[in-house]
Amino acid sequence: MIDVHSIEFYVLALVVAVALVGLFFGERQTQPAASRIITMDVMQRLADEYPAGEIRLTMSDIGVLTIFHAGVDIAPGQLLNVVVTMAGSKVKVVEKLTGSATGPAEAADVCCTVHLQRGVDRYHVRYESPMTGQWCLMTIDQEQGSQSRGTLAY
């Protein structure tokens, strides 16, 4: 039996307390982030079928996420790339306009596909458009046909 008035008891209690504090408040183990640069496919605007600034996400049965952005102003000679950064269930998508304009900008719809990591039930997606200063947050389940919509805002 341990005597509660002994030095050994207090040393053991201190060690256990430090271990518990370290366990609860220590640095969390995070998965390394993986980034990809993907060129968006530019399509002719679909007669305002979708409002400008709408983001649509669609999940396929094999873990492929389709990202659709309606009403993006792109000039001839320019490309729209997205930098997709994935860390666990968090996905960050940032638009990057590249190339030099050879004419006036016109509204277009853009889309791309991203292969996501398996083993995650739900993804939390942050979509940013630094060109406009707008962003939106969405979640999408890892199920075939799962969809999510968001609108870019300040």
Architecture overview:
The protein is mainly beta and 154 residues long. It has one domain (34-151). It has one helix at residues 7-25; strands spanning 34-39, 41-44, 54-59, 64-74, 78-87, 90-99, 106-115, 122-129, 134-141, 147-151. Strands 1-5-6-8-9 form a five-stranded mixed beta sheet, with no helix packed on it. Strand 5 and strand 6 (90-99) form a beta hairpin. The termini are far apart. 16% of the residues are buried. The mean pLDDT is 88.
Set down the secondary structure blueprint.
Elements: H1 7-25, E1 34-39, E2 41-44, E3 54-59, E4 64-74, E5 78-87, E6 90-99, E7 106-115, E8 122-129, E9 134-141, E10 147-151
Parallel strand pairs: 6-8
Antiparallel strand pairs: 1-5, 2-7, 3-4, 3-10, 4-7, 5-6, 8-9
Short description:
By secondary structure, this protein is mainly β. Helix content is 12%, strand content 51%.
Features:
single chain, 51% strand
Shape: elongated
Number of helices: 1
Supply Rg.
24 Å
Main sheet overview: 5 strands, mixed
Spans with pLDDT under 50 lasting ≥5 residues? none
The averaged pLDDT comes out at 88
| Share in β-strands | over 45%
Number of strands: 10
Strand order of the largest sheet: 1-5-6-8-9
How many independent structural domains? Answer: 1
Order of helices and strands: HEEEEEEEEEE
Can you give the helix content as a percent range?
Answer: 10-25%
Structural class: mainly beta
The N- to C-terminal Cα distance equals 65 Å
